[in-house]
Amino acid sequence: MRTTKVVLLLAAFFFSAAAVASAQQELRVGLMDEEPGVVRNNNQGGGRDIDVWTAIANDTGVRVTYVYVKNPSALLAALDEGKVDVAGWTSTTSEKYLRTTTILPTAEALVVPKTDVRPYRNLDDIRNLRFATLKDTAYANYLKNSGIVSIREFNNLPDVLSAVTSGEADAAMFSGIIAGYMEKQDKLSGLQVVRSYQPALSRPVVAAFPKGASESYEKVEAALKKLHANGTMETIKAKYGL
Length: 242
Description:
Blueprint: H1 2-23, E1 26-32, E2 39-41, E3 44-46, H2 48-60, E4 63-69, H3 72-80, E5 86-90, E6 97-99, E7 104-113, H4 123-126, E8 131-134, H5 138-145, E9 151-154, H6 157-166, E10 171-175, H7 176-184, E11 191-193, E12 202-210, H8 214-229, H9 232-239
């Protein structure tokens, strides 16, 4: 009789544990598939954004899976279409989303050939350059709104850099976080980040949720604040040279 009770108690315990595991919340995080956010090495996934969301998952107990997209507009489209639960790394300012506290700040970088040693400082210095940039981004909008005439927009960063390397464009403008990381990793190939340039765009990178996802949003928001307070975010920044 006692043996039967022990067996029943053990069975109840294991069924309860299985129920908890199956009920564990899963969060589909949309990320742009580019370095340093996502870094692939020998089929092992890692990178700045992966490190951030791993830390969030560890703090919240939420099970995180990743959906990778190619550009910022595709990321928000995936969120709008319900293909992801959160845009894990975005600079959107749209009020249609629940936006978290800042993950990291970002601004634009000016990238030119290493042979170009002119001391570009501000908009007046770059107004007559032929630019390559990423389509449907804050950088493209800034260049257009600043009255710069020659702008070529591309769907991916390799094509942006190729346009400058080939001479089709005089300069590229894109994320300073990405540009700095690529330069540190010696991946700009004949190009350089202009150190004299003073960025005009400084904005926070956040995670964005649909308006109806307040429970998930609040968990992630609390985790991010904790990660800033305990130094985890500073450690991640230092790891990727930010």
